Structures
1.
Amino acid sequence: MSSPPVRLDILKRSGSHHGRRGRVTTPHGSFDTPAFMPVATAAAMKGLTPAQVRSTGSQCILNNAFHLLLRPGHRRIEALGGVHEFMRWDGPILTDSGGFQAFSMADINRVDEDGVTFRSFIDGSVVHLGPESSMEVQQALGADIAMAFDDCPSAAPGGEPAQQRARRVEAKDRSVRWLERCVRAHHRESQALFGIVQGGTDLELRRSSVDATCAFDLPGFAIGGVAVGEAPDAVERVVREIAPLLPESKPRYLMGVGYPADIIMAVESGIDMFDCVLPTRNGRNGFAFTQGGSIRLRNAVHANDGTPIEEGCDCEACRGGFSRAYLRHLFLAGEMLGPVLVSLHNLRLYQRLLLDIRRAIDEDAWLDLRSRWTLATRAESSATDPHGAMDE
Amino acid sequence: MSSPPVRLDILKRSGSHHGRRGRVTTPHGSFDTPAFMPVATAAAMKGLTPAQVRSTGSQCILNNAFHLLLRPGHRRIEALGGVHEFMRWDGPILTDSGGFQAFSMADINRVDEDGVTFRSFIDGSVVHLGPESSMEVQQALGADIAMAFDDCPSAAPGGEPAQQRARRVEAKDRSVRWLERCVRAHHRESQALFGIVQGGTDLELRRSSVDATCAFDLPGFAIGGVAVGEAPDAVERVVREIAPLLPESKPRYLMGVGYPADIIMAVESGIDMFDCVLPTRNGRNGFAFTQGGSIRLRNAVHANDGTPIEEGCDCEACRGGFSRAYLRHLFLAGEMLGPVLVSLHNLRLYQRLLLDIRRAIDEDAWLDLRSRWTLATRAESSATDPHGAMDE
């Protein structure tokens, strides 16, 4: 049997928690873990060129199979040489299964044992996505890591508590049956298929999902169905309990998380990979993350402020000397350069956090890390959205 | 008397026409002429960073005083260190006077001997702009080159032919009176003030304007009021007749022009400087210039085309290997990266043209140049817009 296309080498284990520092090797190079993967939904990181994304320290990125399936079409991308060639990103890429987006368009979909049927938001055509077709799409796209097609209900499905629990049990069991079909349908040797643990906020369901999912000998596993609207402490409980149960030697991926504080917590629980739309979505809207808290650049307080977003930051915006006053002007004037510069800053802020996390594990200096990043905490705003919303 | 802040050194004259190859030196460095200046209306080149603009070979850029006066305000920019510091462009900058934009909002302005009064498109407030206030704004912004505040009527003012001519005569004479007031109001030693010749398509009025305008000992002169809606052959007649009459030793600037063919024609007439919104505006809308003609990237014909916009082009988009199929996808998906990449290409295409023009003068090989660029000609679409429209 050939070696798996994606492999984790653990280089250092934390002395104080489950965290580990390592490197994931893929057919398109390696990335350091714990890793943050920016979300390039439709095979583009908004206004940023791949070179600019690379300049933030990002090594692996995420594409949404759902969006690319609908436009420009996975077969077209395959004919053009695959998604790496299509978007000119020569590093590792992960695609999600498309399931989350299909499910979250709840008013126009139908879910059954074969998958989900929905209307395209582009041309209104009826599209079916299931385990086999998701594998077909993701194999055609040709990312380094494909995700299993799973049944992910919202945090608050309708009905009485008993019905809600029944829906979660169904989703968890169906996700395992679908995983088996994904494994059978997945043949691309240069692509890893990761399984996804479901079960909502119910730890019993989660443990049962871990047992069934990790019974498949896959090169990596994810925790899905978190950060879909439930309370932050419920997410933390699931991650702290479940992450350490995932196979020790494989990459562990927490889907759609999150704020800096969430990432620090999850790394302590042994998570290796993260993705989130927050840095780019907030950047696009003029919200900048800093180590000392977040900043709304449209605020009048910045109108005459000649200082950069964050003193000492080495991103293209801060290092380039663009002032808060200038950035505010760009947002008020509707100039694209505003979203570009603040997205660059936010991505770099996240990668600085991950660099610091990796160093803190290497040097067994975790408490210092927590004190440095305590202010860059979960914002007051709404919970994060796991796989990237429609508008990302 | 101190030396002028802006100086032209002519390095080579064409053997076959009025064209000259030179270098303009300013307080923020020099630029090669003939030069094309991209338009950064509101102190931003849409989604491009200054480093990206620089990568296209652009050496001098243009800002619109009108936009910056209204937002964020010239006094604010002055307090932040001037427009170079504000937008982080350390090379030469030229500002226009704001007059053209104020005049072109014809339904909400009032023109008299003191200037133009109009309502701000941002907050509806009443704003006055005249020779003295335009100088105040431009000196506060602190560009290397400021333009005189002139009276520029549209190509087709209302009324009978006699009334139209009367309006053109009035505008020409008023522009000279205003120039005198601009000269009196201009005191910034590190900034050059350029005069502007008016007179519409009437060569007699134009010659009279040249005489009166060039009677002022200014470091540079422009031809204004072309490409405001008149027929292309009328523009050509004015440029061919009038450009050679401008002082031989000073930079000659043709405002708001134009397509590659217009630029080649005007260089033959002795023009040194150009600005136009076309490369960025068209780029933003998915229209790419190439040496072999222009391309509409949204067209279905590009859907499966793996080739770059232009083979052999050294811009970030073509050199980076981004395919027409990918660019089309970006435009259809509304991804900002599309405008960014095509604007980069178009600006580089223009700078490649200007490089080629300068080389053709250096090497006395003008006919070869014409044959190389004959297809990158004036498009079928509408005439260019001189100082940059509102949306640029």
2.
Amino acid sequence: MLRKLVVVGVGLIGGSFARALRRAGAVGTIVGVDRNEVALARALELGIVDRAAREAADEVADADLVLLAAPVAQTPAILASIATRLGPDTVVTDAGSTKGDVVAAARTALGAQIARFVPAHPIAGREVHGPDAALDDLYDGRHVIVTPLAGHDADAVERVRAAWRSAGARVLEMDVARHDSVLASVSHLPHVLAYALVAQIVDGVDAELKLALAGAGFRDFTRIAASSPEMWRDIVLANREALLGELDRYAAVVADLRARIADGDGAGIEAVFDKASRTRLAWQAARDAATSR
Amino acid sequence: MLRKLVVVGVGLIGGSFARALRRAGAVGTIVGVDRNEVALARALELGIVDRAAREAADEVADADLVLLAAPVAQTPAILASIATRLGPDTVVTDAGSTKGDVVAAARTALGAQIARFVPAHPIAGREVHGPDAALDDLYDGRHVIVTPLAGHDADAVERVRAAWRSAGARVLEMDVARHDSVLASVSHLPHVLAYALVAQIVDGVDAELKLALAGAGFRDFTRIAASSPEMWRDIVLANREALLGELDRYAAVVADLRARIADGDGAGIEAVFDKASRTRLAWQAARDAATSR
């Protein structure tokens, strides 16, 4: 049971966390902080938070948990603003989709208090944003990855894990580097590749004709190329190192396939396609089984 | 009005063509040919064809139009079997998704009669196959690309165009090379890239973890990696030259993006993402507007 929770950023992610803990009866007072005054007033009106505050620094001393759920570009400044005001029992966590960059910022801002900073990443989202998009069941059955740092306070880690379990999530633990390389592989790399295909088409010959004749395969493959350019610029830069590693390994697989195509190696091509196809079919079957439970 | 149509391959594509022409009252007799005797009997039972024949060669002399809609690997053998039996007024067309390879096979098999061979590619499909999947409206509003050859018979080309218009399709005309490079860009390349991503993941570290944490972005990007490995092996080999060109141009775009990421060039990354995102959003909007008409 958290007596006091401070949520910095009361949009989809932070608001849903607040709602889910409230639903579970796992929290006493929830204080919302947001630079966006309209969003903050709306979160109060919707009952997502009990109280609104202007500065996180004024609220963290007696908080059991502080969740940073503002846009990740604001994280270093927020950490710097609260660093000297944290109480001895305050635990800080975040919800960013990359971890290496957040940890570096936290080390700089928090110094020795880094032991009570527990990085986390809930893998959940919606197309819509803001307090009105927040749901008390957004995290039900979804994965949350917690990436404890060397020298962490065990109680702090358990407090974060327990909060996410109360919110309905399945908690996984791994180190920061592994988190960042896994997400680079299944999320950040596909975004880069989809953006690149659309960019290549629009800058190349016959762009209009190609787009006019593009069908369902193109539609699915490039759906994520409609994502926010600013957000994905920040993500690929924040996770630069892991992403470049995955990109280079991917380029090697493509180069190998290219050679097989150029050589007319039908058996070799089919072996790669067949392995991928079987993997993808099994993945979908497992996912369908999980969601129909 | 076609007095006699011969459809070689009475599955989804050939069966739907027959049904659509019947619906339009644009055909007299339809003769079906298929190596698969069960499919052929079923097409007769369903009324898709008026008569079933064992050998295309026995039916082509007095046919106005012969549509080749069997698996493309059979095209050279079918063309060879009918070459000496074509009547002076018989026009032959096909429905394959690559054109350069079909044209090469047709030149070999047909010699001077190539003037009455009109390559075509209907861009339409369903997840299901066989005569039972055939629909009289499969081609309504869909594009059919006709790729007339140098020295073609103008009447032959017009007969094929008219037949597809009767079937409800929108007919486009372009040369073989352009068709193959457009399709390589918007269809064949994305398939190769999606297969490669799944293959990279399954052969790399943390495959299980990555697949467990893969979300909606991965799902959409890799949906086409569940496609038939045999069919796509044949397509990438049939369209090898155009596909390798598109693949190399794509690799250059990715390499450029890689350099921007490595350099931390946020503005450069955002410019590429933004152009792609705006293009993709406009594409979807145009598509939604077209389907809601």
